[in-house]
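WARN retry 2 of 3 for item q-0093 after timeout on previous attempt; input resubmitted unchanged.
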Amino acid sequence: MRYELVIFDNDGVLVDSEPLANTVLSGYLTELGHPTSYEESLRDYMGSAVHRVHDLVEERTGQKLPEDFDSTLATRTFAAFQEELVAVDGTEDLLGKLVADGVDYCVASSGSHERIRVGHRKTGIDQWFEEEWIFSSEDVGRGKPAPDLFLYAAERMGVAPERCVVIEDSPLGVEAARAAGMDVYGFTSMVPADRLVGVTGHFSDMAQLPQLLA
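OK item q-0093 returned
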C-alpha cells in the first residue's frame, strides 16, 4: 500500500450514524423554533462539530441556542444509537484486511470522544481500535473544515501528512483533508460524488477501498 496511515472519519464511514444523528438534530432544532429539515441538516452540518450548529443558528437568527443544547442533543442522539445504530457494511472486513497487511489506521471524527465510543461499542467495532488511535475535534481548537484534526492525528500516529490518506463522506471533511495536504477518498453512500470536490477518488462500497489504496 502506498500510504503509511489510513485516517477514517467515523460518522457515515465506520458507523451508519448520519441518518440517525441528523434526524435527531433537525427535529431538536425545529422544536427550539429553528425549523430545519433532515435534508437541510445534512447539507449544513454533516461532518462538522457541534459548534458549527451554534455558529450558524446565531449567524442566521441572532439567537443563541440553550446552554444545555449540547448535552440534550447528545442524550437524544445516543438513545437513537442504542436503538438502531449499525456499522457500515464491510467495515470489519476492511479493518481486518488492514491489520493483516500491517497498515496503521486511526479515526479522526468531528464527534465527541463519548459519541465515538458509544457508536463503536454499540456496533462492536471497538475491538478494532486502541484508545490511542481515536481522535476527536475535542482534541483540537477547530473542527473540520479546518485541517487541525487530521494534522493532529497524523502527528500523534507519527506519520507525515503526505504519507496519510483520509476516508471521508462529507464535503467539510474532504475540505479539511485537502487543507492538511493529504489524499482523500470520498465514500458516496449519502453524498453524491459531485459534491465531494477535490477528492483523490470515489467509492461506494467498502470492498472497493483496498484496491484504490494499493
